[in-house]
Specification:
- It is globular and about 45 Å long.
- The longest helix is centred in the last third of the chain and has 19 residues.
- About 30% of the residues lie in helices and about 30% in strands.
- The strands form 3 sheets. Strands 2-3-4-7-8 form a 5-stranded antiparallel beta sheet, sandwiched between helices.
- By secondary structure, it is an alpha+beta fold.
- The chain has 3 helices and 9 strands, in the order βαβββββββααβ.
Length: about 180
């Protein structure tokens, strides 16, 4: 089975709003398994479907208590504010202090079709918010002021151009074995 490529800044799929998942089936479970492999190899703690080129509303994650999937997630409550240095597999090698709500209540569905309800705080809360941003076509760059964004895009373009000559997966992708 072919390895998944993690899409990076510049790939248009990262700017699209994802469609709700309609069917929770074996194909979705298989894709999630491949996403876990890519996420762990990267390494990361979360990976949204758009990051592997699939414009559907789900993500995989492992916050230290084993691999999990959240389908059609929705934040129903948020409280407080928390600033933290945040990076992203689709914006490799860069991170910024991003302010997000400190606590959230999120609901969605698991691979078994059962509803999931989670109260999360700080880093766990940030993980879910970050992955939902991907489902909404939003990247960390969207939180930066104009000067920071300009610098970041310049660095990312240089990284992508430098990689483009040797990477058979094409622009906007990072291939993991």
């Amino acid at each position: 089975m072919e390895s998944l490529s993690i899409r990076v800044f510049g790939d248009p799929v990262l700017k699209r709003v994802s469609e709700d998942v309609q069917d929770i089936d074996g194909a979705l479970a298989s894709l999630c398994g491949r996403m876990f492999e890519a996420m762990y190899q990267a390494p990361g703690i979360g990976l949204a479907a758009p990051q592997v080129g699939v414009s559907q509303r789900f993500f995989v994650y492992d916050y230290g208590d084993g691999p999990k999937v959240l389908i059609n997630p929705e934040i129903v409550e948020s409280h407080g504010e928390w600033e933290y240095d945040e990076g992203c597999l689709s914006v490799p090698g860069l991170s910024w202090n991003i302010v997000r709500p400190k606590q959230i209540h999120i609901v969605g569905y698991g691979l078994d079709g059962e509803e999931i309800s989670i109260e999360a705080d700080e880093l766990e809360s940030r993980l879910y918010q970050h992955e939902i941003d991907h489902l909404d076509g939003k990247l960390l760059l969207d939180y930066l002021d104009d000067d920071e964004k300009k610098k970041a895009k310049k660095i990312l373009r240089e990284m992508i151009m430098g990689q483009g000559n040797n990477d058979s997966s094409g622009p906007g992708r990072v291939q993991f074995p």
